[in-house]
Each structure stands twice: as C-alpha cells, then as structure tokens.
Amino acid sequence: MIKSISNAEITLKKIKGDDLLPLWHIAYGREEPEWMKWNGPYFKDPVYTWEAFQKLSANYLNNEFRYGIFVNEQIIGIVSAYYEDNDIEKWLEIGIVLYDESIWGRNIGTRAMKLWINHLFGIINLPHIGFTTWSGNLGMIHLGQKIGMTEEGRIRKVRFWQNQYWDSVKFGILRDEWSELDWRD
User: Fold this and answer.
1) Are residues 120 and 81 in contact, defined by beta-carbon separation less than 8 angstroms?
2) How far apart are alpha carbons 120 and 122 in whole angstroms?
3) Could you please report the per-residue DSSP string of the chain?
4) Are 92 and 80 in contact (CB under 8 A)?
5) In terms of pTM, does the model score above 0.90?
6) Domain extent for 131
7) In total, how many domains does the chain have?
8) How confident is the prediction along the chain (185 residues), in pLDDT tens digits per residue?
9) CA 11 centroid distance within chain
C-alpha cells in the first residue's frame, strides 16, 4: 500500500505515532484555533486536550482515509475521506484542514487536495468524489472551483453560525472529468 504521495514541497503520508504530538500542538495547542472558525464551526467541536486527543489516536494512525500533510517534513494539516453512505461505500466525501494559518494563501491546500483526489481515484473504483462546506468558507469554495470541481448543490440557510444562517455547499467531480484535467503542478 502507498505510504506517501509527494508533489514539490508537499508530502501526504500516513500519520505515525511520532506525528501525534506535533499534530496536536498545531491543531489544538492554542485556546481558540483559527482553523476551527472555518471547519464547520456550527458543529461546535471541542478543542481537545492532549489526553483527550490521545484517546482519538486510533482514528489517525495508519488510516487509509486520513493522511498528514507535511511541508519540509513538518506536519501542517490533514486530508481525509469517509463514506457518506457508511457501509454501502459508494459515496466518498473528502476534507482538508491546514492548521497553521500562517501558511494559508500559499497554494498548499490546493496542491494537497489535487494529490489527495488523484490518490483516491487511483485506489478506489468510484465515479465521484466530493466535499461539503458552508457559504462562509470562501477559501474552501475557491479551492473547489480552482481544482475543477463543480458546485453540485446548495442548501440555503441551514448552517447557523455567528447569529446568522449560512448555506451548505456541495462540490464534486467525476472520475472522467478529473482524468481530463492537468492535476499536476
């Protein structure tokens, strides 16, 4: 099985035990992480203590559907995938989180997502891959557009955050469409 996927300065690879503490530090080592304001903030996910994060470590280690994003050998985020339809395994959703906001806007997320989608289409025989975000996350919407995904759906005013309603926005791409794109840098 593939252990790492690389492109220029970015490497996607399975998360190992040695990666957990650095991952926790960048993800949860601050009281109010900036990334949590954009990654489905309406779900009100907790900021995990190191002890609580360690209990979740089985979800991260050696997981085919959760890779670390590494730049210069340092973990800076994760890419993930899950089946929206659970055991049926025909509807794959993906995600990405760059925990360190100082690297936002440097095209790292775009390049990492291209690598991830290409990898997933290479190992899974499905016709479609997609993600869901919210209308306030303009960075994620831009990423989807930039890599050639189509806005496939918008459920208006269903995400409540900051005392207002936001749209839920669904992006996707078909295998045939992806194979026609130049997904390399």
Assistant:
1) yes
2) 5
3) ---EEEETTEEEEEB-GGGHHHHHHHHHSSSS-GGGGTSSGGG------HHHHHHTGGGTBT-TTEEEEEETTEEEEEEEEEETTGGG---EEEEEEE--GGGTTSSHHHHHHHHHHHHHHHHS--SEEEEEEETT-HHHHHHHHHTT-EEEEEEEEEEEETTEEEEEEEEEEEHHHHHHS----
4) no
5) yes
6) 4-180
7) 1
8) 456 777 778 999 999 999 999 999 999 999 889 999 999 999 989 999 999 999 999 999 989 999 999 999 999 999 999 999 999 999 999 999 999 899 999 999 999 999 999 999 999 999 999 999 999 999 999 999 999 999 999 999 999 999 999 999 999 999 999 999 975 55
9) 14
Do the domain assignments include residue 121? yes
In this structure, is residue 185 part of a structural domain? no
> The domain spanning residue 148 has which CATH number?
3.40.630.30
Q: CA 153: distance to chain centroid? A: 19
Beta bridge partners of 5: 12
134 assigned to some structural domain? yes
Q: Tell me which residue of 9, 48, 7 sits closest to 28, measured CA to CA.
A: 48
